[in-house]
Amino acid sequence: MEILRKAPTVKAGSDRFTGDAWFDVIARGEPPSRVRVNVVRFAPGARNAWHAHAVGQTVHVTEGIGRIQSRGGAVVEIRAGDTVHTTAGEWHWHGAAPDHFMTHLAIWEAPAEGPESEWGEQVTDAEYLVQPAEPTR
Ligand code: MN
C-alpha cells in the first residue's frame, strides 16, 4: 500500500485549454499499470482543445454543468452524474458551460507505446457558443 499525499493542483496550460481550468492527478499507474485519473475543474466558459486519446477516455461529471462534442457530432450538455466514453482515437473536446463551473474525473490509459493523447486546434467561440443538445440518457 502507498498513501499518496495530495499533489498540488496544476493550472491547465493555455496551449491546450481556453479559459481557466485546473487538474489534480489522482492516479498515475506504475508499469505494468497504465491507468491515469485526473480531477479536472473548469471555470465557466473554459474548455480544452480538440484532442484524441490513444486508448480512449472516460469522463465522469461530479459537479456542475458542462459540454462535450465529438468531431462531426452535436455539442451535448453534460451534468453531474453523467459518464461519457470516447473511443480510441476519437477527436473531441470537453469543458464547462458558459455560465456554470464543471468538474469531472478523467480516466484513461497510456498506450503500450507512443503518446497518450494527440492535441489539435483550440475550440473557437463559434464552435463552443451553440445551443447544446440534450444527451441521450
Ligand atoms: Mn478527452
Q: What descriptors fit this protein?
A:
single chain; 8-stranded antiparallel sheet; Jelly Rolls; binds manganese (II) ion; 47% strand; 12 strands; mainly beta
Can you put this structure into words, describing what you see?
The protein has 137 residues and is mostly beta strands. The chain has a single domain (10-111), classed as Jelly Rolls (Sandwich), CATH 2.60.120. It is 3% helix and 47% strand. The chain is built from one helix and twelve strands, in the order ββββββββββββα. The chain has one helix at residues 125-128; strands at 10-11, 17-18, 21-28, 35-42, 47-48, 51-53, 57-70, 75-79, 83-86, 92-96, 102-109, 117-119. The strands form three sheets. Strands 1, 3, 4, 7, 8, 9, 10 and 11 form an eight-stranded antiparallel sheet that branches. The chain is globular and about 45 Å long. It starts with 9 loop residues before the first strand and ends in a 9-residue tail after the last helix. Residues 51, 53, 57, 92, 94 line the site of manganese (II) ion.
